[in-house]
Amino acid sequence: MTKLTRADLDALPSYVPGRSPADLARELGLPEAIKLASNEVSYGPLPGVVEAITEAASTVHRYPDMGVLALRTTLAERYGVDPDRVATGCGSVALCEHLARATCLPGDEIVYSWRSFEAYPIIVATTAATSVRVPNDASHGHDLDAMAAAITDRTRVVLVCNPNNPTGTSVRRAQLDRFLNAVPDDVLVVLDEAYREFVTDTEVPDGLRAYGDRPNVVVLRTLSKAWGLAGLRVGFLVAQPEVAAAVRKVVTPFSTSTTAQAAALAALQQAEEVRRRCALVVSERDRVTEAVRKLGVEVPDSQANFVWLPLGGQAAQFGAACEARGVIVRPFQGDGVRVTIGTPAENDAFLAAAEAALA
Ligand SMILES: Cc1ncc(COP(=O)(O)O)c(C=O)c1O
Predict the structure, then answer these.
(1) Which atom of ligand 1 is nearest to the CA of 39?
(2) Of the candidates 357, 332, 359, 275, the residue with the CA atom closest to the CA atom of residue 37
(3) For a pocket test of ligand 1, which of 165, 191, 302 has the largest count of ligand atoms closer than 8 A to its C-beta?
């Protein structure tokens, strides 16, 4: 058949979504399966969110507010910036794509650490930019000096995933200061802080507070994780007004839906509950980390809502063994397995599966 789509896409791995727990439960004949594969928070929508969505539902025959004004204003107030510095998108993953589109022409380079968020290579390739991958260091984190050294005059963007998905590692203030000082002014540094709310290490900087005023820094955040809106797709960025305006220009029109805007506004009123849930996740993160280390796996310290098991060639086998026990995790064959922190009962089920898998 005549090829109708770009040949280079054939070489690109597809984004792997977490497997459906309903399908797995059916397959195993279990009442339910546990999904710890997509870095969601297990505690349900925040109070007030379902009501806000229900109310917004009666207006969905109309287009949403394309300027997302109420939500951008609320985010701006919350984070202490002007609304013209904020852009929202269909998840922060879409904003990442919009940033690439707003900055790169074919052949321009985007530098990122690898392994990192699996959407990065797909976004770079579909933008027709070139990926420059800098290997993670021996501790599974970003090697910022090597990333700075990888910048060329074709580089338009450097992605810094802090904490890093899937390894949970983070870069600290002194390293990031040095890195940002080394990056040329005409290269955009995107601090992807999807997991910021789970950070407890005081040396890991809040990108917005520490670097938000640097002209070439963009901070990406999401309401999918700590704020419990993964299914509604709301991400936002804070950048200098010209950069935010360029992103708003290339954004898919109306991609922050009416229900998403209403739900996000309701969720943002629940900061205290978010802090409470994050504290639960953090305490479970510490418990799971210790327990898996006792099984002999060198789990790096995580600052996110997941942990990384660097199992190399055993990753797929470990993932399959957990699935056979009704627990869906996220293996990256040849590299490791990412396991999201769930409720205490979900984590117990994972630990039992892990113990059996590693026996
Ligand atoms: C590092 C990182 N950035 C961005 C995202 C995208 O999140 P969303 O598109 O749901 O906002 C994710 C999701 O897994 C992520 O891990």
Answers:
(1) 14
(2) 332
(3) 165
Query: Do 196 and 178 contact (CB within 8 A), yes or no?
Result: no
Cα 335 off chain centre by: 19
The percent of residues above 90 in pLDDT, for the chain, comes to 94
Q: 292 with 309: CB under 8 angstroms?
A: yes
Q: What is the pLDDT of residues 32-53, one digit of tens each?
A: 999 999 999 999 999 999 999 9
The residue type found at 90 is: C
Q: Ligand 1 centroid to 45 CA: how many Å?
A: 18
List pLDDT tens digits, range 53-98. Answer: 999 999 999 999 999 999 999 999 999 999 999 999 999 999 999 9
Which tokens sit at 89? Answer: 């998108």
Nearest-atom number in ligand 1 for the CA of 230 is 10
Q: What are phi and psi of 161, to 5 degrees?
A: -100, 110
